[in-house]
Design brief:
The protein is mainly beta. The protein has two helices and ten strands; from the N terminus they run H-E-E-E-E-E-E-E-H-E-E-E. The strands form three sheets. Strands 1, 2, 5 and 10 form a four-stranded mixed sheet that branches. A four-stranded antiparallel sheet has the order 4-3-6-9. Strands 7-8 form a two-stranded antiparallel ribbon. A hairpin with a 2-residue loop joins strand 1 and strand 2. The longest helix is centred in the first third of the chain and has 12 residues. The N terminus is likely disordered.
């Protein structure tokens, strides 16, 4: 299950090269990052939390997959724990079958009708209209995100 979600997150993120200040590597400080995510007051289980670096933040950000209680721990895209210090737009994704059940391993979209379960306002990374943000700083950072399914998108998030 975690592999399938991480794989989907990786596919989604392949389209984001150049959004950050460069790849992780020697000399790039990594801050341990943990947190929780809730949707409408309930733990958001089996969702991917993505920290997308904003201008001026080094590295490519990080991601984590929530457990049954909505808890996550970030790693970078080379599976190094944490993410670099800086400012991030935080997005969320949870792709399931239409009935909300997990995607079977190796399934294709046309075979199972995959659907995003998170409101669109939280799934889009748009630096001009950040909905959820985080400032990562040492020695550790922890965040509690509370998503509201009725939240209206800010102007500019969904260009016409």
């Amino acid at each position: 299950m975690r592999f399938a979600l991480c794989g989907m997150a990786s596919i989604l993120l392949m389209g984001l090269p150049g959004c950050g200040g460069g790849a992780a590597g020697p000399g790039l400080e990594m801050i341990p990052v943990t947190g929780t995510a809730k949707l409408d007051g309930k733990p958001l289980a089996a969702a991917t939390v993505l920290f997308n670096p904003l201008p001026g933040t080094k590295g490519n950000g990080g991601y984590g997959v929530t457990d049954a209680e909505g808890k996550f721990t970030l790693t970078d895209y080379q599976e190094v724990p944490g993410c670099p210090p800086g400012d991030y737009a935080v997005t969320f994704t949870k792709i399931t079958q239409p009935d909300g059940s997990p995607i079977p391993p190796g399934a294709q979209r046309g075979e199972v009708g995959m659907e995003e379960q998170i409101p669109k306002v939280y799934t889009v990374f748009a630096p001009q209209a950040v909905v959820t943000s985080a400032k990562v700083k040492g020695p550790t950072s922890s965040f509690d995100f509370v998503l509201d399914s009725k939240l209206r998108p800010p102007p500019g998030l969904f260009p016409r």
